[in-house]
Amino acid sequence: CANLISLDAEDSFCPSLEVLDLSSCPEFDGRGLLDNSERSLDEIFPRIRKLNLKDCASLKYVKIDEASERSTTILVPIEGLESIDLSLCVHLENVVITSTSLKRIDLAQCLHLKVLSIHFPNLKELDLSRLPLLMMIAIWCPSLVRLNLAGCCDLKSKTSLVECDKLEWVDIRGATYLTPEFFCDAKKGKCGNGNLLICK
Length: 200
Hints:
Radius of gyration: 17 Å
Strand content: 15-25%
Helix content: under 10%
Shape: globular
Number of strands: 13
């Protein structure tokens, strides 16, 4: 879909669709799908579980919010969404996500992201690798098991908050300013018992 710019979903109803793959649509900027103020994606795709927007280079703003009704680019609400891939959306500048159902988020190589706040009770896997401008994160994900921060070369422990009691695997290769001790604190000192693997 190299020439896809917008998608008119206003009059659509796809009751059985579980996976929506719009990956590698470099001109798609979310119009018609992500900015629909009349109907939420939940109404159009009531069974959607996976949303793939990988390599949609024209996307700049994404908002997934189960409560809000405002934003230029918005997905609201997607109650059963379990996985979203926004990796390689190289012009993405702002992501606001609040969800109770999400289990996996991929934001790898979103080169313009600088600040992220992520609060998900059921998220298990989060890929924030190769975000060279990322300077601050706040992650509260009590079910998170895997966290990839490899290549986040500007991210510092003192400007980050990570509270993830169930972390088992963290990759901080190339994240010069992050220390393994920081993630021990994120697990409330539990990393000494061998249940946290840190790739440094």
